[in-house]
Amino acid sequence: MGKYQDICITIPNNLRYIPLIQDSTAAFARIIGLDEKSTNEVVLGVEEAVVNVIDHAFAEGEQASFNIIFQQTALGMQILIREQGMPFDPEELTRLAQKDRTEAEDTRGLGLHLMYRFMDEVSFVNLGKAGKETRLVKYSGIRMRDVMDLPQPDSHKEADEVPAYQIHLMTPEQAVEISRCAYMSYGYSYSSDYIYFPELLRQLNEEGKMVSLVASSENKEIIGHVALIFQGDDPHVPVVDDAFVNPKYRGAGCLNDLGAAVIEWAQNNGLTGLYTWAVTTHAYSQRVALKWGLSDTAILISGELPFDFKALKEGAGQRESIAILFTYLNAKNAIQIYPPAQHADMIQQIYHSLGIQAKILPIGSSLDLLEEDAILELKYDPSIIAFVTVKTYGKNVVHEVNRMLRGLCLERLETIYLKLPLTSPYTAILTEEFENLGFFFSGIMPGSEGRDQLILQYLNNQVIDYDLIKVHSEMGQKILAYIKNHDPNQILKL
After folding, report:
1. DSSP sequence for 220-251
2. Vertex 291, ends 285 and 295: CA angle to 5°?
3. Which of the four, 371, 399, 403, 471, has the lowest number of CB atoms within 10 Å?
4. Widest pairwise Cα distance in the chain
5. Could you tell me how far CA 68 lies from the centroid of its own chain?
6. Lowest mean per-residue pLDDT among 185-194, 250-259, 440-449
7. 41, 119 Cβ separation under 8 angstroms
8. Whole-prediction pTM value?
9. How far apart are CA 55 and CA 4, in angstroms?
C-alpha cells in the first residue's frame, strides 16, 4: 500500500455540510485501505467531533469556517480539526458527554463519548491565539489472518536448547514470523495490537516509525524480537518496546543480546536516549531494563487498569502503576534545568543516577508570565488516565490547568498527569501552584535538547497501597518512597 498525501478541506460552521464531511471521511478511509467496519466508525467519530465544533466553538449566529485534515498513518488514519472558535472548555465537553450517556445512549446525536467509542485516540490541543485542534486517530482494521489460526501457546512446555542465532534488522518477509512469535509468547493478550498485523509491522519499519531487531537461527526461525518505536513527541528518544522471546528458548540470554543490539543500533544512529515503561505488579520487566542499562526516572501511580482484568474495565482491585526507565546514549555531561526548589535535590539525584550532572539555572527576579495564552495539550482515555502537557506557558496557565482538572474529575478519570518543561523557568515558579491544586511529584522524563519534562500526578479520590507496588532498583525504591511521602491522599490513611 502506497503513502497517500494529506487532504485538507475548509468547511463553513454549518450543520448542513455534515453529509459532505461524512462522504469525504468515508472516501479517504477507503482509499487508504480501512475495512468497512472501521470506515463506518471513523465517519461516526468525525461526525460527533465536527458537530461539537460547530455547536460549541462559535457564538450563536457567527459565520466562520474551519479546516479538516485527513492523514494516512502507518497504523491507519488521523483526522485533525482546526478552528479558531471560543477558548477550549473541558467542563463543557464533560457536561455534553454526561448528558449523552444518560439521554442518547442509543442514538447518533451529539455525543463526546462516541468519539472515544469509535476512535482509538482522541486529544485536544489549546493553541492559544491560533485556536484549537481536535485530533482523532483510527487504527487499521486489517485482519490477523496470518496468525489467527495458530494453536494456543503452551506456557508449561520445557525450554528447548537454543540454536545458534544472529541478530539483525527485520527483513520484510520476517514480519509474519514475528507476529507468530508474539502470539506464541502471549496469545492475543499483548498490549501492542499492531504486533499481530504483519502488514503493519512491515509498513512501520519501512516508514522508520519502528525499528525491529530480530534474533533468527540458520533455518530462519525467529528466536526473539525487540523494537524501537518512534511515535512520541521526541524524535531523538524512542521507546524500547515489543521485546519477547519464543517460549521454547526463554532463559538462555537471547533477550539480553537483543537489548545490547538495540542500544548499539541507537548509539550508531545518533539517538539521544531510550526509555521504556515497565509494570510494577512484578519486577521482571524492570530487571530486564536494568540489565540493558536503563534507570528509573519516574513512577506513574495508578496509570493503568489492572492487567489481569483489563477487558473488564472496572472493579478489579488496585490499578497498575508504571515505572519509566531511561538511558542516555549520546548526551552531554551536563544539562541545564529550572526545577522547582522543593524537588530540586531529588531531580538532581535522578539525573545523577543516569550519569549526568543537572545544573540548576537561576531565575531572574523580574520574570513575569507571558501576555499570550498558554498552549496546552489534553490527551485522555475515558475511565483510564489523562495527560495534560504544558507546551507553552502563558498568563492563564494555572487557571486553564485547574479548569481541565475539574472537568476530568467530573468525567471520573481516576488519574491525571501534568507534564511541565524543565527547561522553562516558569516550571520552577509555578509547580507549587499546581501542587496546591492537588498534583504531586511523579518524576522526570529526560529528552533531547530542550525536551526534558517534570511529571506531576493527581489521584482522583484514590488511596494507594504502596506496598503492592514492586520496584526493583535502589533508585526506583527511592523515587517510590519520595512519591508516597508527597501523595496528599496518604493522609487519609492516618
Report:
1. --EEEEEEEE--SS-TTSPEEEEEEE-GGGTT
2. 80
3. 371
4. 74
5. 23
6. 185-194
7. yes
8. 0.77
9. 31
